[in-house]
């Protein structure tokens, strides 16, 4: 519910178990009074910081008492008005002045969410939109608050409009600012690198800032656009925490800052390193959305909140709850070394096992036999694939398999026909040496002619063959940050325009080919974010397919994202990334905790392993409704314990699927109990594997005995309510 009390000039937003109160100060400043647990619509005037003067905190000229923006809770921090915490916006105007004094002008409340144009946006909800005007310039800011009453999620963004006659320059344009009352907090972030995405790290927030982000032109493996603020005592199942997640895939920043009075400001959005956006008279700049999730049930509650929100309001509606394709991908089976016979043999081996889609990965186009060449030349390599794609697709079809194809649209190889024709289409200056990464350059996605070219080439392929699935990859980060098509004063717009170009091309292709299922990828999980998930119902979680390391990566990813968004494959051993050998059953168990698939040479499997594949797929299909819609409960943390264990419980609590993996075998560890979570205390459940029937509270408080397991051995339990 969203209400406005004109007497006290207070807005109240009530989610399922949180409330937010915003107050319009008599002089017009918008003050955040509360964000936290549910509260009544009382007169919160007693929280007005005015009566107490804090030395060295400037007082704006239009207030009568000691009101200072330095200590008031702000909803969008301004610069140059005595608030010395991090500002949300910094505007350079013609006269060189950068200070802004934003005052309330108007508001509206409406059903649904605002249209963000090119940016990904959450659907549904109810919106409070507050317009603030700058008393010192012609800038106007619209703050949007999208509330989901049945969730504990508030989505926010800001729009900046130039209402004047001369241009202004945005040097920073964050999406939001939230000031929380004084307290002791920890910060959780998800850092990493290629093959090690989304590793959780929790540290105390002291005074000053914890600032995280990616300046790489992509949300990145190195830091995920996610941050959670936890009260000190908060753990996995209990305590207050607030998660922040940007629905954005470009360079970004999130910052938590503890002030002199102990209050905490969380703010962020587009990263402002090298950012400068010219806003001409009458123009509007729209910032990406942030989803803020409140939980009183610890990190687990926050994760379930994000999962419900993303599935219900962000992931593509037409695919989010549908069974996913179970893939065989040839990458780790062949790398670049394949021909028609090899691919057909993989398809032959896949068909009887329950796999339904064959995905041809990198190397099918141009003259690509290694990663030095041909990106940008999106036509079939007939030398390698005699007769082109058609015979392979036909072969798959005959065996009942659909066909999927890999693209890396945003890239260009120096050794390509495209580069020879258009060297200036690569990011950076064609007349100055540029950095390479994986031997490739990045295409300038800010240019219409580039995205038109890609649309045409990809449409030829998608329209010319029966293709049901696309894997959209992106295998390097941006270096020179320069477009030959932008004037000098607009080069600071490059990174944001780049990602808008990417979103635009995906949108155009998806509209033209509505039946094609798109999966995202970026050197594994390098662009795994809420922005990409608005287009791709699932994302390749990591190039690291080692089941033990994957369990950790999937654990970290689950803090902010639903299981169904994680694409998870079984691969061969010794594992190509780590050299480790993990039992086949464990690889299947870990890969069943997401959109499952295979990434190995099925022809090399033993008869026993092939039977296991069949069983694994049958199991996946049986538990898929839980993966798509269920609630995740994290039980044993593989970063801290000698095992990994999670449970996925159906919303009606009649079913649960538990997956665990032991790291190292330990002798004599026979009284180790796994206490389940998320069940209904009074219901009785039968554990399929042991035949035991126990009450929910017994399963949760007494627990089940851990089976004896070898190194990296796994177990699964299927629980079903009995009457
Ligand atoms: C990236 C992807 C892999 C594979 C290769 C192909 O690394 O993450 O899955 O598609 O590119 O070059």
Short description:
This protein has 723 residues and is α+β, with helices and mostly antiparallel strands. It contains 11 helices and 38 strands.
Task: List the topology elements.
Blueprint: E1 2-5, E2 10-14, E3 18-24, E4 30-37, E5 89-92, E6 102-111, E7 126-134, E8 139-148, E9 153-162, E10 168-180, E11 185-191, E12 199-204, E13 208-214, E14 223-231, E15 241-246, E16 252-258, E17 264-270, E18 277-279, E19 284-286, E20 290-295, H1 298-313, E21 327-329, H2 331-334, H3 340-350, E22 357-360, H4 390-398, E23 402-407, E24 411-413, H5 417-421, E25 440-442, H6 448-464, E26 469-472, H7 494-512, E27 517-520, E28 538-540, H8 547-557, E29 566-571, H9 584-591, E30 595-599, H10 607-629, E31 631-636, E32 643-649, E33 655-662, E34 673-674, E35 684-687, E36 693-695, H11 696-701, E37 704-705, E38 714-722
Parallel strand pairs: 21-22, 21-30, 22-23, 23-26, 26-27, 27-28, 28-29, 29-30
Antiparallel strand pairs: 1-2, 2-3, 3-4, 5-10, 6-7, 7-8, 8-9, 9-19, 9-20, 10-17, 10-18, 11-12, 11-14, 13-16, 14-15, 15-20, 16-17, 24-25, 31-32, 32-33, 33-38, 34-37, 35-36, 35-38
Helix pairs in contact: 3-4, 6-7, 8-9, 9-10
The structure holds alpha-D-galactopyranose.
Alpha-D-galactopyranose is lined by residues 331, 361-362, 406, 473, 475, 521, 523-524, 540, 543.
């Amino acid at each position: 519910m969203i209400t406005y009390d004109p007497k006290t000039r207070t807005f109240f937003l009530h989610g399922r178990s949180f409330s937010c109160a915003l107050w319009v100060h008599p002089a017009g400043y918008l003050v955040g009074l509360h964000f936290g647990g549910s509260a009544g619509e009382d007169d919160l005037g007693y929280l007005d910081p005015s009566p107490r003067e804090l030395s060295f905190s400037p007082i704006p000229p239009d207030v009568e008492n000691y009101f200072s923006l330095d200590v008031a809770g702000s909803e969008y921090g301004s610069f140059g008005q005595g608030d010395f915490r991090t500002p949300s916006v910094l505007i350079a105007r013609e006269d060189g002045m950068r200070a802004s004094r934003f005052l309330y002008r108007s508001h509206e409340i409406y059903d649904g969410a605002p249209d963000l144009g090119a940016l990904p946006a959450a659907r549904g909800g109810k919106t409070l939109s507050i317009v603030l005007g700058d008393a010192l310039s012609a800038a106007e800011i619209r703050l949007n608050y999208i509330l989901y009453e049945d969730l504990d999620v508030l989505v926010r963004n800001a729009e900046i409009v130039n209402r004047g006659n001369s241009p202004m320059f945005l040097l920073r344009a964050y999406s939001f600012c939230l000031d929380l009352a004084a307290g002791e907090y920890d910060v959780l972030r998800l850092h990493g690198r290629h093959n090690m995405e989304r590793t959780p790290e929790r540290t105390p927030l002291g005074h000053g800032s914890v600032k995280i982000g990616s300046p790489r032109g992509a949300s990145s493996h190195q830091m995920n656009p996610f941050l959670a603020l936890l009260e000190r005592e908060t753990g996995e199942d209990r305590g207050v925490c607030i998660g922040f997640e940007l629905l954005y895939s470009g360079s970004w920043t999130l910052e938590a800052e503890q002030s002199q009075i102990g209050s905490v400001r969380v703010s962020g959005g587009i990263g402002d390193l090298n950012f400068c956006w010219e806003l001409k008279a009458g123009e509007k700049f729209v910032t990406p959305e942030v989803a803020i999730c409140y939980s009183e049930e610890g990190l687990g509650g926050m994760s379930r909140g994000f999962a419900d929100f993303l599935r219900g309001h962000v992931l593509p509606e037409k695919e989010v709850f549908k069974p996913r394709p179970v893939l065989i991908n040839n990458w780790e089976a062949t790398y670049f070394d394949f021909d028609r016979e090899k691919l057909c043999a993989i398809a032959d081996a896949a068909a009887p096992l329950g796999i339904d889609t064959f995905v041809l990965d990198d190397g099918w186009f141009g003259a690509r036999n290694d990663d030095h060449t041909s990106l940008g030349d999106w036509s079939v390599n007939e030398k390698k694939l005699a007769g082109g794609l058609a015979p392979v697709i036909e072969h798959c079809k005959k065996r009942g398999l659909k066909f999927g194809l890999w693209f890396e649209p945003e890239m260009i190889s120096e050794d390509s026909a495209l580069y020879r024709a258009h060297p200036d289409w690569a990011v950076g200056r064609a007349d100055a040496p540029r950095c390479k990464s994986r031997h490739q350059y990045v295409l300038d996605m800010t240019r219409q002619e580039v995205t038109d070219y890609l649309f045409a080439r990809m449409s030829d392929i998608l329209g010319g063959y029966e293709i049901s699935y696309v894997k959209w990859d992106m295998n390097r980060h941006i270096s020179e940050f320069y477009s030959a098509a932008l004037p000098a004063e607009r080069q600071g717009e490059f990174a944001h325009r780049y990602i808008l170009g990417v979103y635009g091309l995906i949108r155009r292709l998806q509209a033209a080919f509505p039946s094609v299922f798109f999966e995202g990828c970026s050197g594994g999980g390098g662009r795994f974010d809420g922005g990409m998930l608005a287009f791709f119902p699932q994302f390749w979680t990591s190039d690291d397919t080692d089941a033990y390391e994957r369990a950790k990566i999937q654990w970290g990813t689950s803090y902010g994202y639903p299981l169904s968004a994680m694409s998870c494959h079984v691969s061969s051993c010794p594992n190509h990334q780590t050299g480790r050998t993990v039992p086949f059953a464990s690889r299947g168990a870990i890969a069943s905790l997401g959109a499952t698939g295979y990434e190995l040479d099925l022809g090399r499997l033993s008869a026993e392993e092939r039977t296991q594949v069949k069983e694994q797929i049958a199991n996946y299909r049986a538990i898929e409704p839980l993966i798509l819609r269920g609630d995740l409960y994290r039980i044993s943390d593989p970063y801290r314990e000698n095992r990994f264990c999670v449970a996925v419980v159906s919303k009606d609590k009649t079913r649960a699927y538990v997956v665990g993996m032991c790291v190292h075998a330990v002798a004599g560890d026979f009284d180790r109990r796994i206490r389940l979570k998320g069940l209904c205390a009074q219901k009785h459940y039968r554990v399929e594997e042991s035949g035991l029937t126990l009450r929910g509270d017994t399963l949760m408080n007494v627990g089940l005995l851990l089976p004896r397991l070898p190194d990296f051995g796994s177990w699964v339990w299927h629980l079903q309510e009995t009457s």
